């Protein structure tokens, strides 16, 4: 697929500086109600904001030392990370912590100032693998979800510790989640959903087992997610949403089928979701912006090779330059 050129959208352009300012200002709103309502998302929020800033070409826009200090302050005695200081450890926040430290080139801070170094983080994650099924739980309470399996593979491979878990068993579990329509569900027998497709395909990519996927069948189901206005929905009959630009687009990229969708129409839909006045992206044109959709909208534009957006790694959802250097 040829890269989408920003010049092709004369009525629409990416408001880079507005988005950078929007993300930088997220942390200065501590007195606002919204800040406290979203406290449980804080470590994830830092990952979304930091990745978006990297993709916008402003990786230094957040203060590095403060960011590292905040990440380390979220670690618990069991090695995992909570959403914010004092919160229980959970897989999803632990993955964000690892990704943030990798992006800041600060994984060695785990050895210097963390609790038990990267081995301790790895053992928290490995301890969440379910012996019976090979899948992963989010925390000690035991809910299984392919999101957690993907997260475990993502963080462990970034730490060089993927061999501490039973990879073949987890891969077999993913295969059980595959449906006849080519998609994947949250557990065996559950309907296909593009969020789950992304996590299953991403985990297979990290395991080096993309050969197990029926790429034509899955590519067909994924490309049917594009609706008339250019956006993607998560499953049939649902509304389009800017964040599915990522879940669907990255899945297509991993199986080399991104050229099966209309990239120009998708880029145009994503750009209509931005707030050109105050920065940030919402789920649909005209809706309230948030850092989650800002991050995934930019990552979607990056997949399309959009002018002025840095290249994203479709497997890790991190800047490609960083994963390439780390995982070579
Ligand atoms: Zn969304």
From TrEMBL:
Its EC number is 2.5.1.60. GO terms for cellular component: Rab-protein geranylgeranyltransferase complex. InterPro entries: PGGT1B-like (IPR045089), Prenyltrans (IPR001330), Ptb1 (IPR026873), Terpenoid_cyclase/PrenylTrfase (IPR008930). Binds 1 zinc ion per subunit. SUPFAM superfamilies: Terpenoid cyclases/Protein prenyltransferases. The keyword Acetylation does not apply. It is an enzyme of class 2 (transferase). It comes from the Eukaryota. Its cofactor is Zn(2+). Keywords: Metal-binding, Prenyltransferase, Repeat, Transferase, Zinc. Residues 15-318 form the Prenyltransferase alpha-alpha toroid domain. It catalyses: geranylgeranyl diphosphate + L-cysteinyl-[protein] = S-geranylgeranyl-L-cysteinyl-[protein] + diphosphate. GO terms for molecular function: metal ion binding; Rab geranylgeranyltransferase activity. The keyword Cell membrane does not apply. CDD domains: GGTase-II. Belongs to the protein prenyltransferase subunit beta family. Catalyzes the transfer of a geranylgeranyl moiety from geranylgeranyl diphosphate to both cysteines of proteins with the C-terminal sequence -XXCC, -XCXC and -CCXX. This is Geranylgeranyl transferase type-2 subunit beta. It comes from Aspergillus arachidicola. The lineage of its organism: Eukaryota, Fungi, Dikarya, Ascomycota, Pezizomycotina.
